[in-house]
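Our working data are protein records whose layout never changes between entries. The record below serves as our worked example for the rest of this section:
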Amino acid sequence: MLHMNLNKEIPTLNDAIEVYLQWKKSHSEKAHKAYRYRLDGFARFIKSQDKSLLNEITPDDIVNFHNQMLRKYSRATVGYSARILKNFFDFHKGRNNSTINPKEIIPVRFIYADKDVVDEEDFQQMTELLDERFIVDLQKKLVLYLLWQTGMRVSELLDLKLSDINEQGSDGLRTARVKTRKTQRYNLVAWSKETDDLLNRYLGWRALVNHPTDLLFIATSGKRTNQKGITSRTIQRWIKTLCNDAMIGKNLTPHSFRHGKAHFVLDNGGGIHEVRTVLRHLNLASAINYTQLNRKKYLKTASRFLGLPKKSMVLHKGLSMDNDSKLLLEQRRA
């Protein structure tokens, strides 16, 4: 039950947050948890300013809140918070509960110039460390193969259900239906026979496990075997450990595979539209973000276009000039 201000019929900030999160949960099953964490932090800040009603909040409060966040969090995290608050106030402006103009909240996206991505050599080095005779390693190897070949988001991988997987086609490819949490949109992903062989071996074990869910990936041992499934942090730990064991000097994450897939498409003759198709982006601009050069490729590309003068035009001891250069120099001297 909402505690409304009877005179103005304006909700408190806490009530407004609850209403918004219930709406968010209705179409985004897990995003609302991250939203709650950031919105609760904003509510604590507003309370410290001796304010409680939604319509008491000003744009300056939002600016001051993010300035305070910068003392503790990265600019990327503050940018994420700004996107959440922009969506929150846009929702309540539509209900005439807020006077904040959402357009004044600028959610800046920070993309680092030398983001590490997975390349084919990284993928091979990590998977070669895994012995698929053991179920723990088999599961890890299957996860890496699916991330590499499909470019799936880790959330899509973790939500993958047994019933989402289709039968293998005559072309040797196997497909699955995946759902994006943010848009609730279903898409198709495909993988090779090699990955499918790993999957079939894993399914032999998975079929023997009495699990309360239809999830493909579940814990392989311990008490967590009977819980919902593995988490993104679990996969992150796997990748970090494999990077260390393979002595890969990169800070790789599950999402690095998605960026790596974009680069793999480009390196093998594909274009931005192929990247968009493989990564299943609705917006072409989103696909472009994934084609950002990593440090190694940037330096290689930049070195080709530094605009250095041709050697034949530079006077160095022991270096001869061509006839046109000599004539030009004589004309200038005259």
In short: The chain is about 50% helix and 5% strand. Strands lie at 174-179, 186-191. The chain has a mean pLDDT of 84. The chain has two domains: 13-104, 120-296.
